[in-house]
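Lab manual, section 2.4: Encoding a predicted structure.

Procedure: take the sequence of the chain (137 residues), apply the prediction step described in section 2.3, and record the output as structure tokens. A sample record is shown.
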Amino acid sequence: MNVADQFLDKAYHIVRRLIELEGERKEFILAISSPSAVDPSRDYVQGGAAHDMADDVARLEDNTQRIKALKRDLMVMQGYVKRIDNEHYRYLLYTRGMYGVPLLTISNTIKIPYTTLRRDYAAAKEALCKALVDWRP
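Recorded output:
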């Protein structure tokens, strides 16, 4: 696995984690804003700790901070891809490498033969290797 593969794998996992955290964030917001979240009859708890709205807000804030950190990391990684001059290569690195769209789907979308895209994607990864001179995993 060369440097470009490691880079794209890390970017792919960041994107997947961002999608996960965004989903959790939406659930937190729904839970906090639902009428049952402020139901005063739920204050009495038998055993265990009492549930408080502040706990939910703290979890939401923690989630938001993790999302912001991952977005910063992703923006830095996108900056490395932007160093590549060829627009077609950048498109392939973003769609296939970072977002995980299969080459066959890309081929059908932009009407370029699959074999040509495979060759171009390999060339794009080679160009990315040259752009990643100062990147450290």
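Check your result against the sample. The chain has five helices and no strands.
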